[in-house]
Amino acid sequence: MEIAVEREEENYLELRIQGEDHTLGNLIAGRLRSVKGVILATYYLPHPLKDELVIKIKTDGTISPREALNRAIEDVKVLGESFLDELEQV
């Protein structure tokens, strides 16, 4: 996985991630939408034959896009740990 900042402003962040597809894009964008202060969280694949995605994050100014991304990633980590804990109970 290789991550590059395509565009960054005070309330906007656009990342290009090499080697990933809808799986990561949907997971991160979905979690970002639940972070308070995020007004846009989306992703797209620039080309269907390349493993590459672009994530766009826009906030209302109460939180930075990078902080929102960090919170979303933490949520994903907690979700994964919870899933593993539940799986061990089965």
Task: Explain what the structure shows.
This protein is 40% helix and 33% strand. With 90 residues, the protein is of the alpha+beta class. The protein has a single domain, classed as RNA polymerase, RBP11-like subunit (Gyrase A, domain 2). It is flat, with a radius of gyration of 14 Å.
Helix content bin: 40-55%
The assigned CATH architecture is: 2-Layer Sandwich
Rg from C-alpha positions? 14 Å
Order of helices and strands: EEHEEH
Q: Which structural class matches the secondary elements? A: alpha+beta
Structure summary, number of beta strands = 4
The CATH C-level class name: Alpha Beta
Protein name: DNA-directed RNA polymerase subunit Rpo11
Organism: Metallosphaera sedula (strain ATCC 51363 / DSM 5348 / JCM 9185 / NBRC 15509 / TH2)
Subcellular location: Cytoplasm
InterPro entries: RBP11-like, RBP11-like_dimer, RNA_pol_Rpb11_13-16kDa_CS, Rpo11-like
Q: What would a concise description of this structure say?
A:
It contains 2 helices and 4 strands. Strands 1-2-4-3 form a 4-stranded antiparallel sheet, with helices on one face. It has helices at residues 22-32, 65-89; strands spanning 2-9, 12-18, 38-44, 52-59.
Structure keywords:
single chain; 90 residues; alpha+beta; Gyrase A, domain 2; 2 helices; 40% helix; flat
